[in-house]
Amino acid sequence: MATPDPLANSHTTPPPPISSRTLHIAGILTTVYGLEELSEASKSISCLWLLHPRLATKQTMQAVAATCISDWNRRRSSDRTVGLIAVAFDQRNHGSREVTPLANEAWRSGNPTHAQDMFSVINGTALDTSLLIDHLGSYIFHGGDGPVIEQNLVMGISLGGHAAWQVFFNEPRVSAAVIIIGCPDYMRVMTDRARLSKLRSYTKADGAEFLGSTDFPNALVASVKKWDPRGILFGTSDIQPYPSESEQKYLRDILDAKIKGKKVLVCSGGADKLVPYHCAEPFMGFLKNATSGWYKDGDVYVEDIVYPGVGHAYSSGMIKDTTRFVSDILAGSSTKASKI
After folding, report:
1. Which of 75, 257, 269, 297 is the most buried (most CB within 10 A)?
2. Rounded to whole angstroms, how far apart are CA atoms 161 and 97?
3. Rounded to the nearest 5 degrees, what angle is found at the Cα of 277, between the Cα atoms of 258 and 269?
4. Is pLDDT at 106 greater than 60 in this prediction?
5. Angle, nearest 10°, between helix axes 277-292 and 186-197?
């Protein structure tokens, strides 16, 4: 299947101008947006980590940075003690870090290790985000009385959305996430892609033997169980939308350790064929049932929006909801009720 550009024509009007500064941190060219727009009154800094789509580069996230930062600065024009910056970097094997172009392609484009290649980039991006959270502050704020980064948010699109799910679950310093056309269930989305690609490893047993096959090896299954949200909670077992009391206790311990008190906005295209919502739906059903029911005391906010007629794209509606969600998080205001 062809890979559409999710950011093509996403911003129908030019985004506002935004300052940028590119730093070399741990071998990664890291672009920081919004430093010059910070008010002198800023004491607390929130950082929005921007994870780009597959086959894209960090530069493609500039409009997202500009839109979110300008919205926050307008909203907080009378009180600028909380400042917002955004950060983008090339994911592994992309842009300035590209090593093997074929490894970024899908099965249908002649890449036999598509599942391994994509998951390792997703996982690497999540790990790089944590690494850069460790070190960014020392590169941009040197004075002892200067502002400090006190809050981290992550926003990812497509491949970056898959990575943002991993950051949301595995990085305790990230308190909120915006997931654009990304999936929390790597095994399910890749099994569906194998079906559409008519891989022999899928067709010979109608998918029953795909996990553990040469196209999705057991070592990859083990990595997914360690890092992927669905894998962390359920492994290769079926997702239980209404777990038993004993299952709830087991799941509660994981949720407490991973996402207690966090907030997430999930935006999916109703007509998306590359990352269809039906691949995320079982996990999202479980998460919404848990956070509104037996795990309500975990104080996890979940907003799950499916945009009718939208394909694999960062649509105008998604832009509006992303901007609103980020500013609401910074303002500390209560976001509106979940849109199911």
Report:
1. 269
2. 19
3. 110
4. yes
5. 160
11 confidence band (pLDDT: 50, 70, 90): low
User: Concatenated DSSP letters for 274-307?
Assistant: SS-HHHHHHHHHHHHHHHHTTTGGG--EEEEEEE
Name the residue with tokens 């909203």: 75
CA 39 to each of CA 16, 36, 42, 104: distance values in angstroms, whole numbers, following the listed order: 17, 8, 5, 40
The residue type of 227 is W
Cα separation, 197 vs 296, whole angstroms: 40
Residue 144: band (very low, low, confident or very high) from pLDDT cuts 50, 70, 90: low
Instruction: Say which residue, 334 or 189, is predicted with more confidence.
Output: 189
Of 313, 322, 302, which is closest to residue 271 (Cα–Cα)?
313
- 3-class SS at 84? strand
| Mean pLDDT along residues 5-16 | 77
Amino acid found at 243: P
What confidence tier does 335 reach under pLDDT thresholds 50, 70, 90?
very low
Q: What is the DSSP letter of 100?
A: -
Residue type, 25: I
Kindly tell me if the per-residue pLDDT of 1 is higher than 70: no
Question: The sheet that has 148-157: what strands, in order across it?
Answer: 20-25, 28-33, 82-89, 44-51, 148-157, 174-180, 263-269, 301-307
- Could you tell me the end-to-end alpha-carbon distance of the chain, in angstroms, rounded to an integer? 29
Tokens representing residue 92 in the block: 């592994």
Q: E-strand spans in 128-196?
A: 148-157, 174-180
